[in-house]
Design a protein that fits this description.
Length: about 280
């Protein structure tokens, strides 16, 4: 684990988004393109540190709240907390290729499916994962970049799920969470942090084994989200930070999401109905 360049006794996983030097919470200055060290922010170190600034709720917290609210709506409209897939919200929000083609055109499912969950255990595990990876990535790249990574990965995951199994209902935030993890690896690599020493490599390997070996897991969704997140992480570090073109990096992330929407629509109707199964 790296240590803060100003406080050698403090370990940290966050680096300055400009120079790449490791910084602890007392040395972080939030900017629109991520955390900056005191020198790069051109401010005294205590003017607006992470601990003293008032930035309201983080995007991670808001996204968790939205997922929980969607799950409550599922329960209120007939879903079972024990794993039953039913109710108005599920029926009108889950990703399902045949209902996005053949005259139905329910394209919103590409987005809404990422906020729905099959059971209390499902949402609990996903929100716990989102909390840990979100609190690692969001301070490092900034709120706007983090939100861009989340939604681009969610949409790419929906495309991947439809590409692999268009006729099987799919739901869950794991596509976006895999994307955050992919971006976290890309950012760590760009800032000289070994994914093996940081623990990211073993966690990725474990999650890939889980994805490929456990039943009812959307392989396409997880891989699609992971790939999109890694690409967005590269755009943010290489274009947004090193070349100082943050708007262009955000536009690139938006393009990943847009291409995913168009590709998802294109493959949505390539299989028949399979209503008895589902993937997460």
């Amino acid at each position: 684990m790296a240590v803060c360049y100003r406080h050698p006794s403090r370990e940290t996983a966050v680096s300055c988004s400009s120079c790449g030097r490791p910084i602890c919470p007392d040395c972080m200055t939030p900017t629109s393109v991520g955390m900056r060290c005191p020198e790069c922010s051109r401010q005294p170190s205590k003017v607006r540190s992470l601990r003293t600034s008032s930035v309201g709720y983080s995007a991670t917290q808001i996204l968790i709240a939205l997922n929980v609210a969607a799950y409550v709506a599922e329960l209120a409209t007939g879903a079972s907390g024990g794993g039953g897939l039913s109710g108005w919200v599920y029926e009108h929000g889950a990703l399902f290729g045949p209902l996005m083609s053949g005259g139905h055109h329910e394209y919103w499912r590409l987005l809404t499916a990422g906020f729905l969950h099959a059971s209390l255990i499902h949402i609990g595990l996903n929100m716990l994962s989102l909390y840990f990876v979100g609190r690692s990535l969001e301070p490092s790249i900034g709120r706007a970049n983090f939100v861009a990574v989340y939604f681009a990965s969610l949409l790419a995951g929906s495309f991947g799920a439809l590409l692999f199994q268009p006729g099987v209902p799919t739901l869950g935030a794991s596509t976006a969470i895999f994307g955050i993890f992919g971006a976290l690896i890309a950012v760590a690599r760009a800032r000289g942090i070994s994914i093996w020493q940081s623990g990211l490599g073993p966690i990725l390997a474990l999650n890939l084994v889980f994805t490929l070996t456990v039943s009812n897991i959307s392989v396409g969704g997880h891989l699609g989200g992971l790939a999109a997140g890694g690409l967005c992480g590269w755009l943010i570090t290489e274009i947004g930070e090193r070349r100082r073109k943050g708007s262009l990096a955000l536009a690139g992330c938006a393009a990943v999401g847009l291409v995913s929407i168009l590709a998802g629509i294109a493959v949505a109707g390539s299989a028949g109905l399979a209503p008895n199964g589902f993937t997460l």
